[in-house]
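Exercise 7. Given the encoded structure of a 430-residue chain, write a plausible sequence.
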């Protein structure tokens, strides 16, 4: 994995204090070929509560078939279903399409939603697989709220975090408009996986196709970044939406998985006091750790020094800012503003939400004409303006809230939002 770290302003005036933005860029290596990738170990955890009856359950079965048809003989796949009870329908032997087909055909709608039980069972099955055998991932699908078993959101997030600490990722897929989008994105954060929103059953096939493509392109897991300021410098915060854990000498950000040739950016701020000396000074060390996934599973570590160049005030004033860092700061602030707008709208402050969205869109619009990623910025502007237009009684609805949450979440995770549904290799069937 390649990594570099740089400042928004390379030159800082020696005469004063500063709170510079810093950007870490990570570029993952190419994914191994299909025959060289390690075996996948998947546990698909399907909600079969009463609200899944009909088309939702039919599509979920088709998506399960899609996954299995694309697995290799060395891959392993388990199927767990849950309503108020949890059942392991298919254990974790090598993939057996006929056995899975029979198990899928037997799934019918049930009662309530024991989200915790399903999540626990999926992780339990995968704990039986040695960590060095290959990636282990729980794919958790639900269309509702947890109302049986563990229902406290913090406890549910803790379950995903514990699985993540054991090397088992959690990806969540929310169906429809009745699930808790904040909970599912937080569980994905804690489990180092992805979070997807299928507003209608028709959206689900493209999401499963995208998730599978990610799994076969997986090149690193448990990616973390430690920021260790020097004694005089303080860490102020991160603009992204990564879990932040205090560690000795600094903080650790948990980025989760990385996919072949994927580029991700992390923006954070430091407080640099008046150092009263000209020249180059180190202000922090940035340590990147990850588990490389390939023919061999191996731990890697990269150490990057972060330095500032202290000059006289007149020289610092003439220096131009790094345009890419400035742009990323604006993008992340706009994404954060969108999430704050959603929170305001949920509390009934639609006017405040509209103002936040309009202000964020205006900042992005000013950047777009001179940006190398103008198309992505214009798309973000269009999304924010569309959401702003729905900040009216009778127009703001659960679908708007969920779209706002997922768009913001993906951008603040250093990833672009998902493309519109409809993938050429999407699953279909009954």
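Solution.
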């Amino acid at each position: 994995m390649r990594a570099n770290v740089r400042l928004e302003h390379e030159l800082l005036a020696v005469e004063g204090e500063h709170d510079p933005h810093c950007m870490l860029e990570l570029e993952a290596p190419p994914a191994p070929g299909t025959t060289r990738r390690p075996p996948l170990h998947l546990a698909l955890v399907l909600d079969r509560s009463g609200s899944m009856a009909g088309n939702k359950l039919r599509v979920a079965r088709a998506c399960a078939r899609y996954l299995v048809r694309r697995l290799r003989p060395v891959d392993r796949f388990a199927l767990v279903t849950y309503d108020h009870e949890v059942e392991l329908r298919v254990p974790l032997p090598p993939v057996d399409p006929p056995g899975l087909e029979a198990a899928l055909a037997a799934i019918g709608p049930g009662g309530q939603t024991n989200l915790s039980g399903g999540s626990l069972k999926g992780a339990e099955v995968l704990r039986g697989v040695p960590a060095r055998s290959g990636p282990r991932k729980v794919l958790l699908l639900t269309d509702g709220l947890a109302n049986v078993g563990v229902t406290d959101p913090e406890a549910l997030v803790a379950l995903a975090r514990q699985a993540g600490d054991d090397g088992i990722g959690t990806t969540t897929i929310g169906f429809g408009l009745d699930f808790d989008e904040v909970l599912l994105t937080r569980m994905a954060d804690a489990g180092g996986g992805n979070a997807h929103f299928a507003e209608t059953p028709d959206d689900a096939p493209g999401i499963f196709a995208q998730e599978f493509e990610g799994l076969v392109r997986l090149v690193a897991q448990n990616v973390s970044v430690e920021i260790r300021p020097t004694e005089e410098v303080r860490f102020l915060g991160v603009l992204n939406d990564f879990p932040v854990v205090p560690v000795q000498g600094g903080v650790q950000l948990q980025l989760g998985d990385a996919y072949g040739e994927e580029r991700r950016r992390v923006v954070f701020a430091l407080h640099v006091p008046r150092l009263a000396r000209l020249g180059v000074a180190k202000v922090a060390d940035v340590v990147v750790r990850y588990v490389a996934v390939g023919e061999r599973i191996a731990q890697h570590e990269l150490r990057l020094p972060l330095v500032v160049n202290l000059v006289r005030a007149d020289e610092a004033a003439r220096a131009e800012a790094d345009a890419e860092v400035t742009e990323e700061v604006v993008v992340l602030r706009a994404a954060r503003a969108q999430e704050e707008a959603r929170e305001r709208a949920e509390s009934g402050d639609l006017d405040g939400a509209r103002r936040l969205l309009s202000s964020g869109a205006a900042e992005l619009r000013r950047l777009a004409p001179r940006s190398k990623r103008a198309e992505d910025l214009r798309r973000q502007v269009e999304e924010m303006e569309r959401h702003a237009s729905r900040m009216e009684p009778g127009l703001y609805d659960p679908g708007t809230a969920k779209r706002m949450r997922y768009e913001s979440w993906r951008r603040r995770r250093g990833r672009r939002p998902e493309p519109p549904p409809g993938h050429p290799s999407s699953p279909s069937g009954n």
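Remark. The first strand starts at residue 2 and ends at 7. Students should compare their own answers with the one above.
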